[in-house]
TrEMBL record:
<dbReference type="GO" id="GO:0008270">
    <property type="term" value="F:zinc ion binding"/>
</dbReference>
<dbReference type="InterPro" id="IPR001878">
    <property type="entry name" value="Znf_CCHC"/>
</dbReference>
<feature type="region of interest" description="Disordered">
    <location>
        <begin position="221"/>
        <end position="242"/>
    </location>
</feature>
<feature type="domain" description="CCHC-type">
    <location>
        <begin position="244"/>
        <end position="261"/>
    </location>
</feature>
<feature type="compositionally biased region" description="Basic and acidic residues">
    <location>
        <begin position="221"/>
        <end position="232"/>
    </location>
</feature>
<dbReference type="Pfam" id="PF14223">
    <property type="entry name" value="Retrotran_gag_2"/>
</dbReference>
<keyword id="KW-0479">Metal-binding</keyword>
<dbReference type="GO" id="GO:0003676">
    <property type="term" value="F:nucleic acid binding"/>
</dbReference>
<keyword id="KW-0863">Zinc-finger</keyword>
<dbReference type="Pfam" id="PF00098">
    <property type="entry name" value="zf-CCHC"/>
</dbReference>
<dbReference type="InterPro" id="IPR036875">
    <property type="entry name" value="Znf_CCHC_sf"/>
</dbReference>
<keyword id="KW-0862">Zinc</keyword>
<protein>
    <recommendedName>
        <fullName>CCHC-type domain-containing protein</fullName>
    </recommendedName>
</protein>
């Protein structure tokens, strides 16, 4: 920043610092620069109104302004011959940048409002997307605080995590909870739910699935009992050949335990699939 000497009473002098202007601080810089120019009684060169500008004051104000510019900006405005031209050029340059930043912020806020958790998306992946959104806010000199991030996270989680969301909201102050803490609690609960479902699923499969051999043995026993109990197997008197009749489909030539219709149901298909898996495992 430029050091600006000025009268300090009783013939003394003091040093005031003219801050260096950058795109991120133009509004603040303009306030400070105006105050310093007023101290030196040269602000009228920048905002002259209807009065004529004193040439000496104009040169002093222009020198002060040029001394507060970085090299890349200085080269662009060095052709401006008056303090007012320098000031107006800086205003157009940096206020325009502020307007672009404001427009980008509006777009970014809309993206954040529409940011939802996709079907099948992992919780930590969604948390990473939220963290990336916070970084984009920082690049635009804005802050996406933990309060907004935690609220968004708790609102977007899948149904299986609602119990832990209710617990967090009941026993913790979500307005002071850090985003990383909320994400960690949800991930821990989600992992426990997945483990319990995995264990329960394995036990259910063991109880419900029959191998093909078990299914055939079960149907053979049921068919034999049915044939023995009914006593309806008939033998022809003339030829002595045994004539078989199925009481599942009503057709002759086979017993119920041998009926093809027994293998058309969903349970039979499930058994065949299980049997195929068993055979494949044996080959491996």
């Amino acid at each position: 920043m430029a050091l600006v000497p000025h009268g300090g009473g009783a013939g003394g002098s003091a040093t005031m610092a003219m801050p260096m202007v950058i795109a991120d601080n133009y509004k603040v810089w303009a306030i400070k620069a105006q105050a310093i120019l007023e101290v030196h009684t040269v602000w009228e060169a920048v905002a002259p109104g209807d009065a004529a500008v004193n040439a000496r004051k104009d040169k002093t104000a222009r020198a002060l302004l040029l001394g507060a510019l970085p090299e890349n900006v200085l080269l662009q405005v060095s052709t401006k011959l008056t303090a007012k031209e320098v000031w107006d050029s800086l205003k157009v340059r940096f206020v325009g940048a502020d307007q672009v930043r404001a427009a980008r912020l509006v777009t970014l806020r809309g993206e954040f409002d529409c940011l939802k958790m996709a079907d099948g998306e992992e919780l930590d992946v969604y948390g990473g997307r939220l963290a990336a959104m916070a970084a984009r806010y920082t690049n635009l000199r804005e802050t996406l605080g933990d309060v907004a991030l935690v609220k968004k996270l708790l609102d977007m989680v899948p149904d299986r995590l609602f119990p832990v969301v209710a617990g967090i909201e009941q026993f913790h102050d979500v307005t002071t909870m850090a985003f990383d803490e909320a994400l960690g609690r949800l991930c821990m609960f989600d992992e426990r739910v997945r483990c319990r479902r995995h264990d329960s699923g394995e036990r259910a499969d063991e109880q419900l699935l029959f191998t093909a051999a078990q299914w055939r043995a079960r149907e053979w026993q049921q068919g034999r009992a049915r044939d023995d109990d009914d006593g309806r197997s008939m033998v022809s008197g003339s030829s002595g050949n045994r004539r078989r009749r199925c009481y599942k489909c009503g057709e002759n030539g086979h017993f119920r335990r041998e009926c093809p219709q027994l293998w058309k149901g969903p349970a039979a298909k499930q058994a065949l699939l299980a049997g195929a898996n068993v055979d494949d495992d044996g080959l491996l």
